[in-house]
Amino acid sequence: MMLEKESNKYIFLAVVLILSTLLAFAFEQLELRRENILLIYIVSIMLIIVETRKVVFGIISTFLLVTIFNFFFTEPKYTFIIDDANYIVTLIIFMISIIILGTLTTSLQKEIYSSRDNAKKIDLLYQISKELLYANSLEEIVEIELKHLKMNLNRELLFCVSKKMITYGDQEIQIDHMKKEINYSIDNQIICGKDQNKFTELPYVIFPFVSKKDVSGVLIVNTTVDILKKREKEFIQTALLHMLTALEREKISEEQENIRIEMEKERIKSILLRSISHDLRTPLTTLQTGSSFLYDSYELIDDQMKKNLLLDINNETSRLAEFVENVLSMTRLQANQLILHPTYELIEDIFNDLHQRVNNRLNHHELIFQEQNQLDSVYADIPLLIQVLTNLIDNAIHHTNDDSKIIVSYAKSEKDITFIVEDNGGGIPEGHIDHVFEDFVASSDFKKGDKLRGIGLGLSICKAIVDAHGGQIRVENNDNHGATFTFNIPILGGNKS
Length: 497
Prior knowledge:
57% helix, 3 domains, elongated, alpha+beta, Heat Shock Protein 90, disordered C terminus
């Protein structure tokens, strides 16, 4: 390729010399002054310098044109003898002027070329930085860097990240025999390989990159065909600095995320322990006190008192059982072990089961089930569906006044069955509606005091179960000054695994 370019320059030189000489003969036939011929040669030499971008071609062409001018256009013609001293002075000045002018032109060309190259480099580095800004992993960062480096250098490239030799790029570059050189380059943070101070026998150049965040590796550039030019080397080093910045940013982001996760784990652990101790202590205290009192005073209290105590024990036992069920469900959800076993079940039977489950907890709440058709059925994991409805009803009982009304209904469409649980117990503060389905958001987050404090898992478990069925759950405040929870179960079922 380089020989072809050089030969093209010599051909261009010869063509310009021939054409300029022919034009000079034409000027002579028109009896124009010989100074005009010199101007033709000046323009020709300038064209040669501009096209070849080398002063040496300008000097060669100057000597050749001066010789041609002397041979064809000065007396005596067709000899190299000059009998007029003025011509000698003119030709010397002409040659000096051309050399100076050519040098300045070449220098200016180099500056223009360098400016264009720098502008292109800056634009390319800007594009790399912009793309790296949105990269979220080591693989993405390296792939972006590879793409732009290959586009600019047009060489075989291979990234080798860390001393584990994780590679990206042209696998034609074999690194098995270069582990010593790669490790040396990383450890000493110096460029090695062809035309460098170390390991010059390699047909590659090894560029190390080492960050303060334990991110290290090398970029291997194939120089078998051509050595790296200075501007290529500078561009590679600048691009690697951009990549290092992105890698360090990603490492810092990862560390911050790990810290956040650890802090969240500690927060959840603290809330979990506090809430579990509270939610376990309350029913256990009732069970212990009630059963102890019943045992010690069995002969002294009437039958109605016994029934009330047994009812309280039963309610607290049910509450404890559902609490344990919610905790187990949360554990399965976090371990991604929630497996659905969907079956068809009449909605009427589901409502009857619900009524039996929650009837003893209502106190003075009024619970109303609104059915549309006794033969309507739903395809779902029925125990989990009942758990969702139970949690929503319990949520309404705990967060509303004793005289509130709770209505459970459903609506059937071609695509899904929508279940609705609404109350008139005051609603949810607007600032908390978007957070009610998050883990550990308990009633105590919305109201002062500890009376209704709970673990805050019921609604988040509801959301997870509905999502597993392929449905959606949402909440809004209604016109009856209460809250309405709505969720849908697709007719064809969600995840049937």
